[in-house]
Amino acid sequence: MSAGTTPALAPNGLATRRVPRYKLAVPLDLTVLRSGIPDRIPGRTLEIGEGGVGVVVASRLLLGESVRVEFLLPHMTTPVRATAVVRYEHQRSFGLQFLRLPEDQQQIIRYWTRCEGEVLLSGRKPLATQATAALETSGFEPAYAGEAALFRTLDHSFKRPTPRWQRILVAAAPVLLLAGAMGWWQWQRGWATLEDTSTASTMPVPQVRVPAELMQQKIRHKVMPEYPDAARQAHIQGTVLLDAIINTDGTVSQLKVISGPTPLTRAAADAVRWWKYEPYLLNGQPAVVDTTIVMDFRLSN
To answer: So where are the chain's domains?
Structure first.
């Protein structure tokens, strides 16, 4: 990886950089809200800084459009989830500026860029050299490389409108303002709904303790364990007790061994992870279940 800085137009028209940026090629999940409907678009990052990220995605983005982005920085365990606005476009790449970035997300990006900067200063091999090399050989350019040319093009087109267009714009200004206000209100309402849904999905759900006998009746998909050869040859048998957490969708999320012969507990846990239950309802709503699973290992079986 190599460091750069966020471009800005200098008086002579050349692009300058003020904030360090680092080349980064990792998968990206992007969501754009159009007509109140969220549309998920896959893509890949090109470079990143504390204020924004350069990306290439599978669909065209519009300048000024707000998007949601999610990606995982190399060597980090918590993904970056941020709202951003499309600021620049150059060929197949776009420059996104972060908006409403929570403090914990800022710390993730700040920590990673600081570590990457230390790697570059020490002369060691960057963290993602192979991915970046593959990206550079594909012909992609940095997301902000064409900013100066883009602004010059826009400036040229807006400074020289024809008188006819001026008259049309003046006459249509009240209608455009009204339509823009309505569109802005609908757009904000759509984002609020999307954010409420995202927040609701992370809210804790009730967890209840359910007897093993009752949850046994709700099993919809059951995988039987394989008797370990070492345990069979050693004539080891017995009962394995597992403490299990069942998600609201009926999948097994956590397992903890309570008791049982050590050579058999691994086989029991490997099988139970594939089990699927009918969701347990509490007051008509799916709930997380804490239950016990009993599994007998007998050589006669």
So the answer is: 3-155, 163-200, 207-297
* Domain 207-297 part of CATH 3.40.190.10: no
**Adjacent-strand bridge partners of 71:** 28, 80
**Nearest Cα to Cα of residue 118 among 254, 246, 292, 1:** 1
**Model confidence pLDDT, tens digit, residues 51-93:** 889 999 888 888 888 888 888 888 777 888 888 899 888 877 8
d(CA 194, CA 190): 6
37, amino acid identity: I
- Would you tell me how many other CB atoms lie within 10 Å of the CB of residue 82? 23
Torsion of CA 31, 33, 39, 40, to 10 degrees: 0
pLDDT tens per residue, range 135-179: 444 443 443 344 444 434 444 444 455 567 677 777 777 777 777
3 — phi, psi (to 5°)? -95, 150
- How far is residue 166's CA from residue 4's CA, in Å, rounded to a whole number? 41
CATH topology of domain 3-155: Thrombin, subunit H (2.40.10)
Residue 30's nearest CA partner among 100, 79, 91, 88 is 79
Query: Residues 6 or more apart from 195 whose CB is under 8 A from it?
Result: none
- What is the helix (H) or strand (E) element at residue 219, kind and residue range? strand 219-221
158, 33 contact by CB (below 8 A): no
What is the DSSP secondary-structure string of 56-115?
Answer: EESS---TT-EEEEEE--TT-SS-EEEEEEEEEEETTEEEEEEES--HHHHHHHHHHHHH
